[in-house]
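Think of the structure tokens as a kind of shorthand, similar to the way a musician reads notation: each symbol stands for something richer, in this case the local conformation of the backbone. In the example below we present two proteins back to back. Begin with the first one, reading the sequence and then the tokens, and try to describe in your own words what changes along the chain.
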Amino acid sequence: MTQRKSVTGVVLAGGRSRRLGRDKAVELVGGEPLISRVVARLSEVADEIVVVVNEIERAAQLPLPQDAIVVVDAYPDKGSLGGIFTGLRAAAKEWAIVVACDMPFVNVALLKHMLDQTDECDAVVPILYGRPEPIHAAYSKVCLPAIETKILADDLKIAGFFDDVHVKFVAEREVDSFDPDHLSFFNINTEQDLQKAVELVSRGR
């Protein structure tokens, strides 16, 4: 196994939480704000944390550590692809591991495994149920031009730029060895999702 590269952790926090009806990033899960839980786990593998928001005023509403770097979407209203571009561009490191602020069960062991796969590729993306999971993935700065091209064409499907870079996919069987219940990819959109997360945390997940 090669020595793991230093990496930036990017948290996408620009969503408007329309389905939940309030800011999910500050909802309490296990007694702590959701985004704090995500940042804490990501910090176990990352050398710095970059949080991407849709407007600077939002940053003041988020309980972030003092050393977190907050950046505003370079391309407003371009969804998660725009957030990935913004976070990756702001990263001090060549590689960034990207997750969303509403993923309470980010799996540190799986993230470390993904980061061990970064040699000779431009991105590392897990596969679940035959489909890529691009908001729980690692990207190098080599991806920036390909991502920006898609944004400027208003082609905002995240996986749309994968054909233009060298992606190493993490097979589902590998994911299962670290996260058999696939909780890494669970995200909170609704009140039911939030209650499920609270219940899982109460059971020690």
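Once you have a description of the first chain, move to the second and do the same.
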Amino acid sequence: MNPFLGVIFHWLGGLASGSFYVPYRAVKKWSWETYWLVGGFFSWIICPIILASFLTKDLFGVLHQQSAATLWWTYFFGVLWGFGGLTFGLTMRYLGMSLGMGMALGYCAALGTLLPPIFKTFFPDIPVAENIQQIAATTPGQITLLGVFVCMIGIVVAAYAGLTKEREMTEADKTKVIKEFNFTKGFFVATFSGIMSACFSFALTAGVPIATASLAAGTDKIWTGLPKLIVVLLGGFTTNFVWCVLLNIKNRTAYQYLASEVRPEHAGLTVEGAKTDATDLKVPMLGNYLFSALAGTTWYFQFFFYTMGETKMGKYSFASWTLHMASIMIFSTMWGWLLHEWKGSSRKAHSLMAAGLATLVLSTVIIGAGAGWTDIVAFFKPH
């Protein structure tokens, strides 16, 4: 157990998650469903299997020995999370990186962090280290819960800053930066996305026996979360694959995976914020595949580092979800600034966002201190 190292790993995961959508902005003349599915193959299938194969022991033997119930619930919650991940991409399209992530992550952080230990209170067989009552009964647990609460405040402030910014911008300015901006549609999509995305936390909880078996097989503890990611992400892949294929059929865009030229009606396709020549039918195939692969691989590394951080948090691993959400919010907002999503907004909006980010950073410090409280006390105790 090393909670401070765990916080660093969660920050790295947040950096990956907050940055993954940036390479998609370089994709041209592909529909959303096309580049999302190409990137998804790397996110949900290729990267999980390759890295788990190299870094864990007897990967397929570990998966084979699991009960049908363990595999099913891990996969099932992954499918439900897939709906959140699917609509998360739509949230970015309609609200942009700063406001979209702020709204979706607010729901996701609250539900994904607190529901597993709360359920443990009523259903003792759920494989979570402690229930909410046990956590709240100790000083370290109280400090950790305080950090979770501070994180929620930070996300609310950051989301309000994003809403303030959107209210101040003209419709022309909004669509100039975010091509398909639609606050009403984005609000409902973000709400659904945040609630369903919290199922990832349940999927990781259901997959605890897989990590335990991997540890017994000789895997270093820091890598034991990788085998269960294969099952969880397979569930997410299922949801996204079905939806993207249906959109390919509906929008007649399935040809794009292999075509060197785009049809005239799709010539102006581009990811929001980028520019393209609608009269040019040539598709930059190599670039589109490379940037989609980069986006997908970057996305996967958020949970690669997440599982590493989770192993360092000990019995307070339930707080890992909060750390992850806070880190994503911090880095996605930074990208929003760099990509000029905040251009033209008032000092009030900038001040609110700065306050939100500062609160999120503070929450990660508090959570790390709570999880490592015993070590802190021991360090300052006279010998």
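Compare your description with these statements about the second chain. Residues 3-378 form one domain.
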